[in-house]
Structure formats: C-alpha cells, structure tokens
Amino acid sequence: MAAPLAWPSSAAVLGRTCGRWLFTGAAGGVLVLILLPLIFVVWLSFFRQEIPSFPPDGYSLRWFRAIWTNPKFADGFAMSLQVAVVAMLAGLLLGVPAALCIARFRFAGREVLNNLLLLPIVVPGIVLGTAIYVFHVELQGFFSEVTILGSIGGLVAGHILLVIPWSVRLVTASLAGFDRSVEEAALSLGATPVRAFFRITLPIIRPGIVASALFGFVVSFGNLEMTLFLVGAGRTTLPIAILQYLEWKIDPTIAAVSVVQIALIGTAMAITNRFVRLSRVV
Amino acid sequence: MLIGPATVFVTLGLLVPIVILFRYSLNDFKAGVMMVEALTLKQYALFFTDPYFIAAFYRTLRVALIVTLLCIVLAYPLAYTLARTQSRWKNLLIMLIVLPLFVGNAVRAAGWMTLFGNKGFINVALQWLGLIDHPVRIMFTEPAVIVGILAVNLPYVVLTIQSVIEGIERAVEEAAFSLGAGPWTMFRRVMLPLATPGFVAGAIFCFILTMNAYATPVLLGGPQFVMMGPLVYTQFAVKSNWPLGAAVAFILMSATLVLTAGANLLVQRRYRR
Known about the structure:
The complex is a heterodimer. Chain A is mainly alpha-helical. Chain A has helices spanning 10-44, 62-67, 71-104, 110-122, 125-142, 152-174, 180-188, 193-222, 225-230, 238-248, 252-275, 278-281. By secondary structure, chain B is an all-alpha fold. Chain B has helices at residues 4-25, 42-49, 51-84, 90-103, 105-116, 121-128, 142-166, 170-178, 183-211, 215-221, 228-238, 242-270, and strands spanning 28-30, 34-36. In chain B, strands 1-2 form a two-stranded antiparallel ribbon. Chain B starts with a helix and ends with a helix.
C-alpha cells in the first residue's frame, strides 16, 4: 500500500467519524419517522381508558373484542377481503398473459400498450374514482334493467383495474434478463410448447407472479380514494369504515382495528417473503 | 392474442371513463336540476375566479412543493444506508419500510392523531419537560398535514432512490475518496449526478402523491384545510355538482402533469451529459 502523502489531522478524522455517525443517525431518524404512526397505533390499542391521553391509566385487551361488536368493521373487513381476493385473481388472469406478451414479442405499438396498461397506477385515485363513477352513470342510462351504479360488480371491476398494472410491471421485470434460447432449447429437444411453458417459463416468472399477487391484494384491500365513489349505499370496505370512524373520533377501538389490519398485511408479506425476497422485487 | 383482454379492459375501464369525465366538466350546473347538458368552460372559469377554490389550489401546490423538497432531503441518508449495507437484516429493514406503505393512509393518520392531539403524546411530553404550559394546537394545522403526508411518501421515495444507488458501482465512490474528496464533495460531484434519475423519479412520484392526497388532509387537516383531492370528492358526493367536480378533477390532473413534465425537462436539460 502506498504511503499517504500526509496523515489526515486528528481533527479531520474526528470530523469524518462524527459525520458518519450523523449520517447513520439521520437514516435511523427517518426510519423512525416512517414507523412512528404505526408504533403509536399499536400502543393506543392496548390502552385501558377510552380517551387517547398520555400516559395511559393501564393496559387492556378489551378493545380487540369490541371490534366485532361494531358491524361496520366486521362487514367492511369481509367486503374488503372478498373484493381483494377476486380482484387479485382476475387481475392476474388478465395481467400475466399481457406481461408475457410485452416481454417476449416485438410488435408495433408495444410501448404504447405497455404504458396504457401501467396507466391505472399513474392516474390519481380520486380522478380514477370520479371517472369510473360517471362511466357507470352513463352505462346505467343504456342498460336500465341491470344495476351497475354502486354494484359489487362495478366495485370489483374498478379494483381489477388497480391490479393489472402491478402484475404487468412485476412480471415483465422478472422476465427482463430472460434468455429466450433456454426455451428454444427445450423446444428443439422435443418438448411441446405447453410443456416448455410449464417447465421453463413458469418457474422463471414465478417470483413475479407471487409478488404481483401480494401487491395486487394489498393495493385492492387498502384502496380508499377510488372505492369511495364505487361502494353502493349501505355497503362499506374496511379502509372506508376506518376513515369515517376517524373523522368522528380517535380511540383504542379504531387502533385495535388498525392493528388487525397491520397484522394481516404483515402476515401476507411474511408468507410472500418465503417465496420471493421482497428486497429484490420492490 | 394474449394482451387483448387486458387492453380492452383498461381501455374500457379507464380511457373511456376519463373521456366521459372531461365531457361532464363542460356541462352546466343548475341547483335543483343538477347537471344540464351544455358545451361551456363555465366550470373552469368559476374555479379560477372563486377565492375559495383558488386558495385550495395554492394550498395544495404549496404543501406538495414543501413535502417533495423535505422528502428528497430526508430520503437520501436512509436510501444510501440501505443500498450500501451488507447487513443480514437488510431484508427485514426493507420490509419495515414497505409495511407502513401497505397498511394504508387512514391507519397511519390514526397514529399521528394519537401524537398530535391536545392530550396527545407530543403535548404531554412537552408539558412534562416544562417547555410549554398549555397544550399547543397541532391537529388541523398545515404542519400536521405536511408531516403526515411526508411520512406517507417517504417509503416510496426511499425505495426509488435506493434502487438507483444500488446500480452505482461502489468503486466509483471509492475512487472519489481515494482522490481526496470529502464525503460532501463526493456526494456533490459523483453521487448527485449519477443518482439524479432516482432523485427525479422519487420527487415526481412524491409530488403526484401529495397533489392527490386524500385521507391525510381530511383527517389531519380537518374540514377547514381543503386540498384538491378532498375538494373533488365534496363537489361530487356532497354537493352533487358533477360538472364542477369533473372540472376540479381535470384541473388537478393537468396541473400535476404539466408541473411534473416541466420539472422533468428542466432537470434533464441541467444534467445532460
């Protein structure tokens, strides 16, 4: 190793070390800022008293039981879960073939189609909601015998729209470094196209599909802005129930509801993480 | 063809509705009869002459600019640390950043409400420390909304910048250091130009999200703190004024698009190599 021209002065070394600590400290501080609201929601859900004042009088688990006595939360949860599962499956069914097509074939208008399919994540939720709402109003005018406005079908269709771009984006990403000659080799060795697809292509895009299932589910389950316009009268989803409750008051009950949601999504992430490393897909 | 169904679905489900929405924004509104078929720019004119709407527009722009600026500055240390760490906890750290992103804005607003209230954690802590005598109002103020949206957007921006930094060879940084550059010079002369695409993408994402924020301004800003997203909803669902609601939605979308495209152009010109 070549000798340095001059040893850095001890003050400079000290300054460098301090800077290093400051930088890492800032990184940690930002992480805390991101996590802070969740930490406090979890804390509040265990308070004994109903008013969210500090320090708490004591701790209790009774708010978790209180959730199920409020039908809005139970109904909203069931509705969100059903809509998210159906929308995720339908979105994958539409999005994955489209992603394969975009990643594997070169055709005119490919870029345009790719951008079109990604559009639902670019268009703001509130604009998406209003646009789909007026679309349903117009459709209702044409087909007066079926209910479209505020129907479950309309709600699910809107949510499918949210899942498609994620599956297109994540599956095309998983095919980015894919060498087509592997597939051609399988074909030339006598595999049928179907067999080649299941033995070669599918294993390669599997992480992409798993990740899009997670993202699709979460995006649909948590959607608020678009859903506000599409839920019919007398129906609610969990995010809407939470929002409406919070507009009125904050207490340990709503915190407990939030904790259930955090736990559900955390579990979904942990399960997905067993199949694909999340740090590789996000 | 494989791509057909998805294309048809998105075209019918998104493009057609947006066209109809634009058509609605050109209609007229009469109290009692609601929407009247017309071809007029009245709603747009109404928006830009009413002080209430103009204030909401500028408030949204101001909050979006402040949040974007803070977001970029704050996201960098965490993004850099994540990109360069060799720790086996890296995956867990990433999950800790993604989890808040996934649990939804209303839940995160609930957390801030526990902190910001009159008997909330911050006020109690400040009183305990003897810094204040009476609770300070934090809820329903602009800073509360800014902090709330900032925390909502940070994960997106951190992950965007992190993925760009991961694509930059470590050797480039080390070369700068071995040539005698300090950390600040290294950042300015090496990291900033190379990571610009990440910063720009993160800033644009953050700006769009803030312009269109809904739950956070509603919950932390209260009914008096009107931003554009909630305004669209109120015009539609509460006032049943579809033409005006459609016009506000279009003004919001165009303002967001024009400003992000402009900023993108500006940065590209500045950093063209």
